[in-house]
Request: fold
Amino acid sequence: MNTSNLLIKAWHWSKMPMAAAVCMVLAQGAMADTDANSALVAAVRTATQRFVDINVAFGEGFVTATPCVSGPDAGAMGVHLVLPSRIGSGIIDVSAPQALIYEPQPDGSMRFVGVEYIVLASTWASAHPGGGPPALAGNLLNLVGAPNRYGLPAFFELHVWAWQRNPKGSFADWNTHVTCDYQPLS
Reply:
């Protein structure tokens, strides 16, 4: 049964609370699948394929910026590796993410799960006076004010879960399929 037929059936059942819930779940699932197949996700995968091996990231100058970051409700982001020269550049380029995100694995390895584009709000405002927030392939970056849990000045960010499906969508901050359960103790 295709989505149109499901929606028509849901409309006929609209007075039934369960039908409304089923319709919402189907719509959310379709949205997450659409995100996962987006041109931006595909471009990020192409541009970052080499970072599946974390040693390549370290070899190119990326450094560990955070321990595994867990979500406020459910899910996590993972361990962020950043390229410091990109953080202050003010440039948002699909082929040059500021952060690479890895999930700690039970065997001590790190699995590449996504990227994050980051630009300091003050840098963006200086380069784009009177302009709006930065965007990447039509996706607006989110403003994270200061003070924040990362100790950074206000910044804009966008996660792209190009290497791990996210039920919340490919551009959500927290991924319920990522965990910090295997974060090594320091």
